[in-house]
Amino acid sequence: MRVIAGEKRGMRLYEPKDERIRPTTDKIKGAIFNTIQMRLDGESIFVDLFGGSGAMGIEALSRGAREAWFFDVDTESVRLIEKNVEKAGFGDRAKIGRMSAKAGIGHLAQGGVSCDFVFMDPPYVKGEESIALIEAMANKKILKSEGIIMMEHEKSVIMPLTICNFVKTKEKKYGNTVISYYGEE
User: Fold this and answer.
1) I want to staple 140 with a disulfide (CB 3.0 to 4.6 A). Which of 61, 97, 109, 125 is the partner?
2) pTM for this predicted structure
3) Measured between alpha carbons, how far is 164 from 141 in angstroms, rounded to an integer?
4) Per-residue pLDDT of the chain (185 residues; tens, 9 = 90+)
5) Hey, what domains does the chain have and what are their CATH numbers?
6) E strands, the chain, where?
C-alpha cells in the first residue's frame, strides 16, 4: 500500500493487521484520483467516511488537497490513520474523528465544513445504509455545489440513479468492485 502520486509519491503506508480493514487497491485508488484530479486543488476538502488505513485521504493530500477529514468507528483504524498521517507529515492538514460515518457527516455540518470530495467504502454489502448516508449529506448540505461523492461497493449492490438531489454521473467497474460517482443535479 503506497501513495501513488504527488508530493509523497511512492511512500509506503503502514498496512492494517486487521483483515476486516480492506484498503482500496492501488489500481482503483489511481483510477478514482485520475477521474477527479483536474478538480483537486489547494482549496479542496476531501472526506473519507470510512477511513480504514487513511490511504485515500493521504493520497488527496499528497495530490494537493488543502485538508482531509477521516472518520472511522474502529479504534485500531483511527490509530492506523494517525500513524500514516504522521508518517506522511500531514498532521496540520488532517482531521481525524473516531465516530461513525453518519456522526462524521453531522460533525462536518455542525462545523460548517463544505466538502469538495466525499469517499465512501462502507464495510457492508447492503446499499440501503449507503443511500441513507448520501441522504444525510443532502440534508446536512455538506457537499459544495460542484462536489463529488465517490462510493466503492461490490458489483452485486445496485445503486440508484438519483438519491435526493444527487444524480449518479458515472459508474466504473473493476472486476467485482464498482465505483459510483454522484453529484448535484
Assistant:
1) 109
2) 0.94
3) 11
4) 899 999 999 999 999 887 777 778 889 999 999 999 999 999 999 999 999 999 999 999 999 999 999 999 999 999 999 999 999 999 999 999 999 999 999 999 999 999 999 999 987 666 788 899 999 999 999 999 999 999 999 999 889 999 999 999 999 999 999 999 999 98
5) 26-184 (3.40.50.150)
6) 45-48, 67-72, 94-98, 115-120, 143-154, 162-163, 166-174, 177-184
